[in-house]
Amino acid sequence: MGKYFGTDGFRGEANVDLTAEHAFHIGRFLGCYLRREKGEHARVVIGKDTRLSGYMLEYALVGGLTASGADAYLLHVTTTPSVAYVTKTDGFDAGIMISASHNSFQDNGIKLFNGNGEKMDETTIATLEKYLDEMAEREGKTPQTPYVTGDKIGVAVDYVAGRNRYVGYLISLGAHSFKGIKVGLDCANGSAWHIAKTVFDALGATTYLTGASPNGTNVNAGVGSTHIEHLQNFVKERGLDIGFAYDGDADRCLCVDETGRLVDGDQILYLYGRYLYERGKLLHNTVVTTVMSNFGLYKAFDELGIRYEKTPVGDKYVYERMSSGGFSIGGEQSGHIIFSKYATTGDGILTSLKVMQAMIEKKSALSQLVAPMQVYPQVLQNVRVADKEKIRADKDVRAVVEGAATALGDSGRVLVRESGTESVIRIMVEAESAEICQKWVKEIAKVIADKERGDG
What we know:
The protein is α/β, with parallel strands linked by helices. The chain contains 15 helices and 19 strands. The protein has a seven-stranded mixed β-sheet with strand order 1-2-6-5-3-4-7, sandwiched between helices. A five-stranded mixed β-sheet has the order 9-8-10-11-12, with helices on both faces. The protein has a four-stranded mixed β-sheet with strand order 14-13-15-16, sandwiched between helices.
């Protein structure tokens, strides 16, 4: 993880941590880098979510790209997976998504994709980070990277047609009619608000929409996958058959069953992994998970004879393992689910379609599909710290974590890790009861907080 880019791009408060100047220099770097790699001017496609600062960053990126001889194609408000899809299928040299995902509107982010629609490789990111540091040091001086002139200057192109093709692609993946099924869609006042309903309506669902009135400042505000209680109430109040909640850029999906109960990413991996397994279509009989997946998922897979692999947290790591191992499905508890046959990144709307497919073909309600998987109590807590690596390496912190692991034994587990996107240490304890989880989370958090204050 670098100085600017974490596990899911460059993210921070707009015009504080991530400024228009950063965006301009990222555009400058990409334009020059891709021109050097390609031998001629490059084509880069850009999407954004509904945040107020998206326009600022979009135009700054365009300025940097065109000043370096690249052409910028604008999808406007769209989803992260649509950028990955269009980058790959329409032959772009790179893709950029402007979004801070599930964060509040004050934050924004920049995600980079290579020409295959995959997250940009670490070597290129490291070179870009070095370039950003150099630009900060050279402020007010002659640019290190020369500007192009004359007919080599790039252009900006409206490319909403690319977004529309992505919508058509999703509709084409609908294997069955959704006629007669009442579906709730919580679009988090984000990227999915004008795409998800189009797809579900086209497939015949009776669609009920919420979180679909973006105003630039209300993305993820009390709605979406990080506020699942909103959709739970929405589904119960309207007597819906199923509900789907996305995050700001719609690369996540969580579900709500007909009773109003949450179905998270682990349960989605279970129900669709089992669906593929029963049809002999689960490649290498393996599902890729992260270290945060629930104990119950692994126990359920063990009973079925389905193998699993664990990666660090982050859908980029899930995709890398899926790609290297040739696996068909993987994802995270948070709702990033990747279907390698159809996408190179998590796609919330695609995940919805696949859940619907399993439900319709098995003629079962969502609650029935996930019933065999027992979810173990899991307690999570974030502790804000100044130096994540220092705290993780501290001997007293390590001692309390090891003590918890020993006490839990085979009946639970503890995971303490650095966030890839925030200055926090994340504590997760899983056990047979919530009380046991809370006991150990509280003890570990106290030691970390004492160390942060200098009391330890």
